[in-house]
């Protein structure tokens, strides 16, 4: 039995793709997942399962589609992955606001390192299936998305969490 963190893309954002977390916990428990926990409303799930990450993601996606009518990308990481990711913070030791440091989880490996265009204050670091970005002015004020920064990822599914959430999910998976 392994512990997995599942990150849903685009649920409960702006009133779209509503997936109440209490209902989702019930549905996942009924589907055979153990110790189902969620964190905030943006689709962060920690479960115990006796399958691998790909199978866990497919099963969670199927539960969401059957129970809530939404097809959503599900990125799954093991508890060990979350420990590795949190420990790999390329911005550690700089005293940055963890709300301004994000990890974008990818559905597969990044084909290349992403480069922040000249004239933008953000900093980015690509690490396999995650992309770290520091937004010094905050994610909401950033214009990085408008530059084509993410375009090299092609059809990879993505979902982003701030460092505070990543650390909380790591801790939940370790408990």
What would you note in describing this structure?
The protein is an alpha+beta fold and 175 residues long. It has two domains: 2-80, SP0830-like domains (Alpha-Beta Plaits, 2-Layer Sandwich); 83-174, no CATH class. The protein is built from four helices and eight strands. It has helices spanning 21-30, 53-68, 79-87, 163-174, and strands at 2-8, 34-39, 44-49, 74-78, 101-106, 123-127, 130-134, 158-162. The chain has a four-stranded antiparallel sheet with strand order 2-3-1-4, with helices on both faces. Strands 6-7-5-8 form a four-stranded antiparallel sheet. A hairpin with a 2-residue loop joins β6 (123-127) and β7 (130-134). The two termini are 14 Å apart.
Helix and strand layout, with pairings?
Elements: E1 2-8, H1 21-30, E2 34-39, E3 44-49, H2 53-68, E4 74-78, H3 79-87, E5 101-106, E6 123-127, E7 130-134, E8 158-162, H4 163-174
Antiparallel strand pairs: 1-3, 1-4, 2-3, 5-7, 5-8, 6-7
InterPro entries: DUF1697
Protein name: DUF1697 domain-containing protein
Pfam family, one: DUF1697
Overall pLDDT score: 94
What is the count of β-strands? Answer: 8
Tally of separate domains: 2
Uncertain regions: pLDDT < 50 for 5+ in a row?
none
Gyration radius, rounded: 16 Å
**C-alpha geometry:** globular
Pfam families: DUF1697
Protein name: DUF1697 domain-containing protein
